[in-house]
Amino acid sequence: MQAFYADHFVLPLPPGHRFPMRKYSMLRDAVVRDVPGLFLHEAPRADDAALALAHTADYIADVSSGQLDAARQREIGFPWSAEMVERSRRSAGATIAACRTALAEGVAVNLAGGTHHAYADKGGGFCVFNDAAIAARQLQRDGNVRRVAVIDLDVHQGNGTASILRDDPTVFTLSLHGEKNYPFRKEASDLDVGLPDGCDDDGYAAALAGALDTLRARFAPDLLIYLAGADPHEDDRLGRLRLTMAGLARRDTMVFDFALSQRLPIAVAMAGGYGNQIENTVAVHRQTVMLAAGYHARYRALDGLPAASVAAAV
After folding, report:
1. How many CA atoms lie within 13 A of 67 on its CB side?
2. pLDDT tens, position by position, 176-206
3. Which of 132, 139, 163, 175 is the most exposed place for a label (fewest CB within 10 A)?
4. Rounded mean pLDDT of 232-243?
5. How far is residue 281's CA from residue 144's CA, in Å, rounded to a whole number?
6. Residue 301 pLDDT level (bands cut at 50, 70, 90)
7. Where is the Histone deacetylase domain (predicted)?
8. 35-68: per-residue pLDDT in tens?
9. Residues 229, 155 contacting (CB under 8 angstroms)
10. Given this model, what pLDDT does residue 14 score?
């Protein structure tokens, strides 16, 4: 299975900053050690033309040239730096690359990404550029897919993704999130499922099953982009849900089964994770990558490429 990384582009954050930057290098070390047959690639850089598929020209220029004022930097949660710009471009490029690879191989992974709080004209919640929205539109522009579904299972609602794609009938946005958690002003996804604080494994699985049934009934995608946040885990200091490692494995398995049952290629991004112990966050992400690798093998055992990839290749 192919995976794309950008963890060597490190933001210079002040001491005590709450964003767990180390989790990305720790995750790469873990999957190199524990996932057989994984091929790692440095994330390509998303250029201005790709970013402009989801963001305004003024916002791209302000980010790139360091013209974000203090208020906009606070909303993002990072001080501006050249490293922030480069990492954000690489994160978007990694999701584009994972989507393109998934069309050929069934499953591919971005070992970062899931920056779903970025709007067309601003960032927020540690998100600068919205990789899922950019990748969905880039793959459509490539001409290989017409319809994309974004399955966002980060514990926080994908408000930026919902806003960017609100009037786009070719992209279906599904967000399963903590109802009372950040962002406190939600946007309207195509399907929003708000969960109560303390939701456990069984409650989450039931809600996800219903959401996937609704997606199946309402939309026929050619490609899935899956935001597999680690923050529904019971140890997450920002999550407020109570999913165990087994519950998160069930979540991932349900999504991969949904994709495999319809022969849909799926690109996976890691999204959020803020465990009291960073090792727990890394363990959740590692588990997702391991499960993705298992589904990649199942795809490759089928007769040829995924259905959407076959259509694109003809």
Report:
1. 7
2. 999 999 998 999 999 999 999 999 999 999 9
3. 163
4. 97
5. 34
6. confident
7. 24-278
8. 999 999 999 999 999 999 999 999 999 999 999 9
9. yes
10. 86
Whether the model clears a pTM of 0.85, i.e. scores above it, the answer is yes
Structure tokens at 260: 């495999």
The secondary structure of the chain, three-state, reads CEEEECCCCCCCCCCCCCCCCHHHHHHHHHHHHHCCCCEEEECCCCCHHHHCCCCCHHHHHHHHHCCCCHHHHHHHCCCCCHHHHHHHHHHHHHHHHHHHHHHHHCEEEECCCCCCCCCCCCCECCECCCHHHHHHHHHHHHCCCCCEEEEECCCCCCHHHHHHCCCCCCEEEEEEEECCCCCCCCCCCCEEEEECCCCCHHHHHHHHHHHHHHHHHHCCCCEEEEECCCCCECCECCCCCCECHHHHHHHHHHHHHHHHHCCCCEEEECCCCCECCHHHHHHHHHHHHHHHHHHHHHHHHCCCCCHHHHHHHC
- Amino acid identity of 272? G
Angle at 287 between CA 217 and CA 246, to 5 degrees: 70
